[in-house]
Amino acid sequence: MRVIARIKEMQEWSERERCAGKRIAFVPTMGFLHDGHLELVRDGRKRGDRLVVSIFVNPTQFGPQEDFAAYPRDFERDRKLLDQAGTDILFYPASSEMYPDGYRTYVEVEKLSHFLCGAFRPGHFRGVTTVLVKLFSIVRPHVVVLGAKDYQQLRIVCRMVEDLNLAIEVVGYPTVREEDGLAMSSRNAYLNQEERRAALSLSRSLKKAESLVLEGERESRRIVEAVRSEIDKEPLARLEYVQVCNPESLEEVERIDGNAVLALAVRVGRARLIDNTLLKGRRG
Amino acid sequence: MRVIARIKEMQEWSERERCAGKRIAFVPTMGFLHDGHLELVRDGRKRGDRLVVSIFVNPTQFGPQEDFAAYPRDFERDRKLLDQAGTDILFYPASSEMYPDGYRTYVEVEKLSHFLCGAFRPGHFRGVTTVLVKLFSIVRPHVVVLGAKDYQQLRIVCRMVEDLNLAIEVVGYPTVREEDGLAMSSRNAYLNQEERRAALSLSRSLKKAESLVLEGERESRRIVEAVRSEIDKEPLARLEYVQVCNPESLEEVERIDGNAVLALAVRVGRARLIDNTLLKGRRG
What we know:
- Two copies of one chain form a homodimer.
- Chain A has helices at residues 7-19, 35-47, 75-84, 95-98, 116-120, 124-139, 151-163, 193-198, 200-214, 220-232; strands at 2-4, 24-29, 50-55, 89-91, 105-109, 143-147, 169-173, 237-245, 259-268, 271-280.
- Chain A is an alpha/beta fold.
- Chain A has two domains: 2-173, Rossmann fold; 186-277, 2-Layer Sandwich (Pantoate--beta-alanine Ligase, Chain: A,domain 2), CATH 3.30.1300.
- In chain A, the strands form two sheets. The first copy, chain A, has a six-stranded parallel β-sheet, with helices on both faces. In chain A, strands 8-9-10 form a three-stranded antiparallel β-sheet.
- Chain A is globular.
- The termini of chain A are far apart.
- The relative contact order of chain A is 0.13.
């Protein structure tokens, strides 16, 4: 595995590989890799002749009160894991390389960016879409693999790739969970033992919602109430939002007729955790 | 010359040419071509092995009160002119191809987009940068040639290309003028004979400013006053703005120490005309 830190070097590598007829798969990450990332990486490995993974803790997607400085980092460990997983190129640029002095350009996906997490993290998705347009210009992948845990992010990126004609296939990889159900996240590292236990309320509440729908419940309001009461049982967990929404437009739906996505964000200690599940309103 | 209307076909052509080692030059236009455009096209012809010209009257860069519907169009004439000028590909997409239903993504260059014309045409440069990111993703040029008459646009595009790592050389081509000094513009077609004469006040006022600087004037305020009085002599001309600014940041400067750009916008009849010139504060 080769580590590339310079944008120009990465672009030259990609142009060469593309022109040699190689299909480039790409997994963008913020590092501090867990098994969820590694599953994306293994999936990417199968989807391309060449596999590029990036590690970049992107400052523009963190709000001023958020955890940019504290975000966990362990480059040496990540490097080894990616090497073992068959990565060809680890792209690892400095912040000053990505956002030099005088930087001014931002990419925004309207509407989709303002629901759900967007309402609580103003500017967050603008930072995500901006850095991804940059990374896509630099890596020039044919296919990119993103985790479906960040469901809203996945939808926004699909919209952006289509709108800007980036000619990239976007693959959403199913959320990877610990054995007890907790969705894998680098931010789980913030949790102490008690908080770790309280964090199980997220997946438990999603299971509860799924059962209700299986039993015939179609009213979003009832499902939201059930989730809320499940989270409220945990004194260490504080619900930020829970919503049932259209899987494409992310707009809130009152009834689950076709498919709907149930998404929630919960604060546990200093971690802000998100999770989601697909609710299937149509039987059979 | 081949005319391509579909995005996917254009992208496939470009990828093939790039991988065959061909350098692609690109001149984006809104059509209704004049000699100014054709000089850009001839310049582009020299800069690439392949030359792509686009014609697309981009709806997102027009305000609701602006001249999108009235903007002059003559595809058959344009097609002939581009063919004669040695264009390889004329990219001519439909609006519905560029902005399908559900379109949501916009690219913005902060600060630079809010000075000068940006203050009078809210959203204009956002539309320009958005369509250009799309066109650059579709045409994948190595070099793009833009007219320097739209000086602010040129600066914004340079910034954006650098910020988004688009790996494109941006060439600003000097403003092409009629013999009497009027900067060429598709919007000159809106002018009747009297207005055409009044429109000469733009280039005349720039000449006046250049002379003042040659004679030693360094105060922006005095230069602005001279321009204003030149425009005010024409009852048919209405000054929208005139400003002396830093050529890079576009910020207003009080004194001309190094180089500065004098930019103005003037309404004559239903035409909104712009022009600019470089003022050299340093002698020799």
